[in-house]
Amino acid sequence: MKKKEEERKKQIMNAAFHAVSNLGYDKVTLQDIANHANVSKGVVHYYFTSKQNILLELLESTTSKIYRFEIQEIGKYHSAIEKLQAYVNAVFVSPQDNKKFYRVYLDFLAQANGNEDYKRINLKFYENCWGIGQEIIELGKGEGVFREDIDPLTYAKVIRAIIDGSLIQWLTCDIEEQHTFYKDICFNSILKLLK
Question: How far apart are CA 190 and CA 162, in angstroms?
């Protein structure tokens, strides 16, 4: 029974992600989420007490999933430059996935101003990202491929800013074919900064 409940909850969370991606944070309703999940609104209410509750869990699960994927991809490599390339590739996963995620994520960020829970989840996500950057920078410094004078935490923050800035600019240009261009520019800019 527990497994079936977990699967149903996952189905509703996936539906919530697609509903917010398609309709936007402000417009999406519990009924929209139910429709995307092919369940009744009552089923959604059984698992989540409110729209706010489901969207809060959606942000937390989505950012955690992305972090776990990035860690998994980086773990496949040994050198700092390979890990950096894997990190950028993991973030620039595909035009379709990036569009969906950033549509949802930017909607959440717009709400974060007045929502302490969103701020907390977002800060945890960024702290995880900064941890990845720090690890890569420290490895690169140890290998002698990155500058000795750089502070790992400061530059880890800059790395994530370059990544997000590149993806947001690509998204606002709305030219799918330029996804690879922005990924390459992002990686090369970070590498130049660190060397």
Answer: 7
- Give me the residue label for tokens 């809060």: 56
Cα separation, 27 vs 20, whole angstroms: 8
Give the C-alpha separation, 85 to 100, whole Å. 22
CA 109/CA 28 separation, integer angstroms = 16
Write out the DSSP string of 124-170: HHHHHHHHHHHHHHHHHHHHTSS-TT--HHHHHHHHHHHHHHHHHHH
- Give every residue of the chain whose pLDDT is below 70, as ranges: 1
138's tokens: 């420290």
- 71 exposed, middle or buried (CB, 10 Å; 0-12, 13-18, 19+)? middle
Half-sphere exposure of 38 (CA within 13 A, CB side): 1
Give CA–CA dist 15/193, Å, rounded.
Answer: 40
**How many other C-beta atoms lie within 10 A of the C-beta of residue 63?**
20
On whether the CB atoms of residues 159 and 190 are closer than 8 A, the answer is: yes
Q: Full-prediction pTM beyond 0.85?
A: yes
**Domains of the chain by start residue, with CATH:** 1-48 (1.10.10.60), 58-194 (1.10.357.10)
The Cα 92–Cα 59 span in angstroms is 19
pLDDT tens-digit series, residues 48-78: 888 888 888 888 988 999 999 999 999 999 9
Residue 126: per-residue pLDDT: 94
